[in-house]
Amino acid sequence: MQRQVPPEARRxxxxxxxxxxxxxxxxxxxxxxxxxxxxxxxxxxxGKLVVRLITNGSLMxxxxxxxxxxxxxxxxGEVWFKIDRATAEEVAExxxxxxxxxxxSKNLEICAELAPTWVQTCWFALDGLAPSLASRMAYCDLLRxxxxxxxxxxxxxxxxxxxxxxxSRLNPLPVDVLADFARQIEKETGIRVIVSP
Length: 197
Fold this sequence. Notes:
By secondary structure, this protein is α/β, with parallel strands linked by helices. It is 38% helix and 17% strand. Helix 1 packs parallel to helix 2 and helix 5 (133-143) packs across helix 6. It is globular. The protein starts with 13 loop residues before the first strand and ends with a strand.
């Protein structure tokens, strides 16, 4: 940083476990969290620098994943649990994977019991259309039962070009549309929402 970063930008924000693929799928995941904890302690950064896991939550049922997330929680870290939509049809269209609300809900609950958990959601238009009222309500219905367990929702827009095959079909939504959905989430679920357009 001293050689390559301008002085005003020389600060560490967090230690993020993420990447091109699900980070909890690595056999070394729990061990990596432990190593991060030791390094933070060695440099007197434990409790000062937040450790964040960015996950789709699909492997939350595994005991080794739970162990790593429990340790992350003990380090004062947090999880950003990615959920962009809450119906099987929309998830299949957007993410190209099969999806079950009950499984995602259970995995989110497990995660929230192990470490502070934020739901991270990218909200955008598809083929020029904003998500429908039914889509917004399905999202609220998914989160409502976990309201007392979640740290909050990070609702964000398309800040950079998508790398997905369907990128040409995606468009950012106006800030007022994101803010309106944030208010709806808070009203319907009681969960606080942070908006990043």
